[in-house]
Each structure stands twice: as C-alpha cells, then as structure tokens.
Amino acid sequence: MKEYFSKMKGGGTSPPCVGISEVLWSWLGSFAGIGVLGYLSSSYFEPRDLTMIIGSFGASAVLVYAAIKSPLAQPRNLIGGHIISGLAGVFCYQVFGTATWAAAALAVSLSIALMLVTNTLHPPGGATALIAVIGSEQIHNLGFFYAFVPAGLGAVILLIVALLVNNLSKNRKYPEYWF
Predict the structure, then answer these.
(1) Is 138:112 a contact under the CB 8 Å cutoff?
(2) Which of 23, 83, 145, 167 is within CB 3.0–4.6 Å of 152 for a Cys-Cys bond?
(3) Rounded to an integer, what distance in angstroms lies between the CA atom of residue 10 and that of residue 48?
(4) How far is C-alpha 155 from the chain's CA centre?
(5) Nearest by Cα to 162 from 28, 43, 45
(6) Peptide bond just before 15 cis, omega within 30 deg
(7) At what angle do helices 100-117 and 75-96 cross, to 10 degrees?
(8) Is the C-alpha dihedral spanning 54, 56, 61, 64 positive or negative?
C-alpha cells in the first residue's frame, strides 16, 4: 500500500518556462483559430441552425498552437480524434440518451478506446464526445452530422490556421508528421 501511495509524490522536475516569443506565437495562433471559427459560426453556420464552435476546440487550440510538438497535437490526432469521438458521442446519446449519466460515461470511455485503437488520441476528443451527449437540442438534432460539422470541419479549420501561423516563426515547425 505504501508503494502505491508513494507513486503520487512524483519525482520529476517541472518543465522550463517558455520564452515570450512562444507565448506570443501561441496567443496569435489561438486568437486566429478560435476567431475564424467564431466568425464563421456567427456569420454563416448559426443562421442555418448549425454551429462551428464547441467547447473542446478551446482545448484543441492549446495543443495545436502551444504544444505543437506533442503527438496529441498532430493533424491525424486533431482531425481523427474529433471525428471519431463525435461519432462515439452521438452513438451513445442515441442508444443510451435517456440515462444521461450512462451515455456520458460511455461516450467518453468509448471515444478514448477508439482513439487509442486508431492511433488518433487527442484529449479534447473526450469533450467532443461528451458534448454530443450533454449538448443542446441543436447539437442533438445534428445526429451523426455533428461528427463532421462542427467537429471535423472545425478541426480542419484549426489545422489550416495552425499550418499558417505556426510556420511563420523561424523557430517553429508544424506539423511534426501527418500520419
């Protein structure tokens, strides 16, 4: 038992702070990426009873604009993770939606398992699956289309902005790999 609890002490050292240049590039990328999604959502998608903004994109922005070397931030993970998780979330809502707690737990768990099996692990995908279950009636009405718009298309837009902004700096390179 003591060995079990001793693992919780940690033991590694904290990563070093990033420089102001990294902070500014990360800020610019996230502002541009979320800004484009917000503009498209309010100008084009919302008047058609669609949306382009879901909460999980905030977490994706952290990865693709500030943790650009992370395997979790690479294009395959970004796009695949959102689409697969969106499909898992909608499936769980449609099958178990009357028991929200069960549908939510199953959606997140299934999305994690599917992302691991397909090598597309992207932590915000868990939120994408959860939103499919606990989201608004507008989200529920999208059915499986939710996995593609907003989840998939939004991820593609974040990727395009990440490609443009992250490569402006001579000290940054994105992506590390595509597949």
Answers:
(1) no
(2) 83
(3) 50
(4) 7
(5) 28
(6) no
(7) 150
(8) negative
Two tokens, residue 82: 């959102």
User: CA-to-CA distance for 94 and 45, rounded, in angstroms?
Assistant: 24
> What tokens appear for 63 in the block?
């990865």
- Residue 16 has which token pair? 């070093």
Which residue's entry shows tokens 């499986």? 144
End-to-end Cα, the chain, rounded Å: 42
Q: Is the peptide bond before 175 cis (omega within 30 degrees of 0)?
A: yes
Tokens at 32, concatenated: 């541009």
Residue 143 CB partners (closer than 8 Å, separation 6+): 90, 94
Closest CA to 123 of 156, 163, 74, 158: 74
pLDDT of residue 15: 87
- Does the pTM of the predicted model rise above 0.70? yes
pLDDT, tens digit, for every residue of 124-161? 999 999 999 999 999 999 999 999 999 999 999 999 99
Closest CA to 63 of 91, 34, 84: 34
Distance between CA atoms of 53 and 56, rounded to whole angstroms?
9
